[in-house]
Design a protein that fits this description.
Strand order of the largest sheet: 1-14-2-3-4-5
Structural class: alpha/beta
CATH topology of the largest domain: Purple Acid Phosphatase, chain A, domain 2
CATH superfamily of the largest domain: Metallo-dependent phosphatases
Helix content: 25-40%
CATH architecture of the largest domain: 4-Layer Sandwich
Number of domains: 2
Length: about 425
C-alpha cells in the first residue's frame, strides 16, 4: 500500500511541476506582479495540502478489510483526486503539445541568427485551449460526483423473436445490474432508483449481479425497499464477481462461504430467487419459457464459477430461453452460435462510468476491453443486452453513462 501511495504522490507532483512550468511560460509577462506570485503560491499550496490529506487519510484509515464504510471513504478520496487532477492531466497534454509545436516551428522555420533583446511573441493558443478544456472538465466531473451517479434513466426496448411463445407476446422484463449498494453514502439515492423501478410495472424483475462491493452488510438498509417490489412473475437474480467475496483477504476459507450464504439469504429476504447455475420455468398463457442463471463467469483474470451445462439441466425441452450471466464476455465465448439461447442479459462493465450515450453516439474507453459493453446487440436470432449498471465503484461518479433501469418488451414476430 505504501509503495502505491508513494507512486501516486510522485506522479501527482510530476504533473504539477510540468503544469506550473507551462503556466509560467504563459504568464511570463506578468512575472513579478502580485497576481503572478499569488497564483503560483496558491497552486502549490493546494497541491501540497491535497497530497498531505491523501497520505494522512490512507495512514489513518488503513486497510478497510470488511468495513464497507471505509471502502466508501476511499471512493470519496478517489473522487476528490479525479476532480482536482483530471483537469491538470488534461492541461498537461496541451502543455506538451505547445512545447512540441514551438520546438518543431523553431526547427522548420528558424528565426534570424542575430541576437535580439526581446523574445518573439508567443500566443500559447494551444495551452489556452487546454486551459479552457480543463476548466470545463472540472465542472463535468463535479456534476458526475454530485448528481450524475444518481441520475437514473429508464431505457425501453422492444425485442422481437420469431420463436417467442404466443403466451409471452408483450411480456415486460425489467433488468437492473451492478447495484454496489455499499458505494452509496446517501440511501435516498438508492431508494429513488428502486421507486423508479417499481413504477415500470414490469412482469418480472431480473438482477444480473454485483449487489455489493464485498460484504452482505451493505444490503441491510435496503431489504425492506426491495421487498416492496412485487412483479407478477417474480424477481430473480444471479451472483456477480463482487458478490463472490474474492476481493477480501479472508482469515479462513469458511468465512468467505459463510458471507456468500449471508448475501444469498438477504437477497432472498428482498424477494429475489437466486439462480445458482440453475433455471426456472416460467408459465404464462399456457406457454412456457426457461429463465437460466449462472454464477459469475468472467474473462480472465475474473474467475469462472458459472456452469452453463448444469444450469440448463431440466430446461432442454423448453424452446425459448433467457440467460442471466453477469459478464458479457460469457456471451461471445460460450453462448453465441454455440447454444439455442435467444436472449442473454449481462452487466459488469458499468460503461466504465465515463463515456457518451446520447444523440445516437455511444462510446466509452471500456469498449477496448469489452466489445459488448452497453445496450442491445443482435446476432441473427440471438440477442444480448448489457446493462451499464445501477450503482458505481471506485470513482464515485457517472459522467455521460447514466445509471440505468432497462425495460425489455418481448414481442412475437420479426423486426421487418
Amino acid at each position: 500500500m505504501f509503495l502505491r501511495l508513494a507512486i501516486i504522490v510522485l506522479f501527482s507532483l510530476l504533473i504539477d511541476v510540468l503544469n506550473i512550468m507551462g503556466i509560467k511560460q504563459m504568464m511570463r509577462r506578468l512575472k513579478g506582479s502580485t497576481f503572478y506570485t499569488w497564483f503560483v503560491r496558491i497552486y502549490w499550496l493546494s497541491s501540497v495540502l491535497l497530497l498531505l490529506y491523501f497520505v494522512g487519510h490512507f495512514l489513518w484509515i488503513g486497510i478497510p478489510g470488511l468495513d464497507f464504510e471505509k471502502y466508501r471513504s476511499f471512493f470519496f478520496l478517489f473522487g476528490i483526486y479525479i476532480l482536482i487532477y483530471m483537469p491538470r492531466i488534461i492541461f498537461l497534454h496541451f502543455v506538451i503539445l505547445q512545447f512540441l509545436y514551438y520546438k518543431i516551428k523553431a526547427i522548420v522555420k528558424p528565426g534570424p541568427k542575430y541576437v535580439v533583446k526581446r523574445k518573439n511573441r508567443r500566443n500559447f493558443i494551444i495551452q489556452k485551449i487546454g486551459l479552457t478544456l480543463s476548466f470545463i472538465s472540472f465542472f463535468v466531473v463535479l456534476y458526475g460526483i454530485i448528481w450524475g451517479k444518481s441520475d437514473f434513466v429508464v431505457r425501453e426496448h422492444t425485442v422481437c423473436f420469431k420463436d417467442l411463445p404466443a403466451g409471452f407476446d408483450g411480456f415486460r422484463l425489467a433488468q437492473i445490474s451492478d447495484m454496489h449498494l455499499g458505494s452509496f453514502s446517501n440511501p435516498n439515492n438508492v431508494k429513488k432508483g428502486i421507486e423508479l423501478l417499481r413504477k415500470q410495472n414490469a412482469d418480472m424483475i431480473l438482477f444480473t449481479g454485483d449487489m455489493v462491493n464485498n460484504v452482505s452488510a451493505e444490503m441491510d438498509s435496503y431489504i425492506d425497499d426491495f421487498g416492496k417490489l412485487n412483479p407478477k412473475y417474480g424477481m430473480f437474480s444471479i451472483l456477480g464477481n463482487h458478490d463472490m467475496g474474492d476481493y477480501v483477504k479472508w482469515q479462513k476459507a469458511e468465512m468467505k462461504y459463510k458471507e456468500i450464504q449471508n448475501l444469498i439469504d438477504k437477497e432472498t429476504s428482498m424477494g429475489f430467487k437466486l439462480l445458482l447455475n440453475e433455471n426456472q420455468i416460467i408459465y404464462r398463457g399456457g406457454d412456457s419459457i426457461a429463465l437460466v442463471g449462472v454464477e459469475n463467469w468472467g474473462k480472465p483474470p475474473f474467475k469462472q464459477y458459472g456452469d452453463l451445462q448444469r444450469a440448463l439441466r431440466g430446461a432442454e425441452a423448453v424452446t425459448f430461453k433467457i440467460l442471466m450471466s453477469h459478464d458479457p464476455s460469457h456471451f461471445a465465448m460460450e453462448i453465441k452460435d454455440k447454444t439455442n439461447i435467444q436472449l442473454s442479459l449481462s452487466g459488469h462493465t458499468h460503461g466504465m462510468q465515463v463515456g457518451i450515450n446520447c444523440c445516437g453516439i455511444k462510446w466509452s474507453p471500456i469498449q477496448w476491453l469489452y466489445p459488448h459493453w452497453n445496450g442491445l446487440y443482435e446476432f441473427d436470432n440471438q440477442y444480448l443486452y448489457v446493462n451499464p449498471g445501477f450503482g458505481f465503484i471506485g470513482m464515485p461518479a457517472r459522467i455521460g453513462i447514466r445509471p440505468e433501469i432497462t425495460v425489455l418488451t418481448l414481442k412475437r414476430g420479426s423486426h421487418e
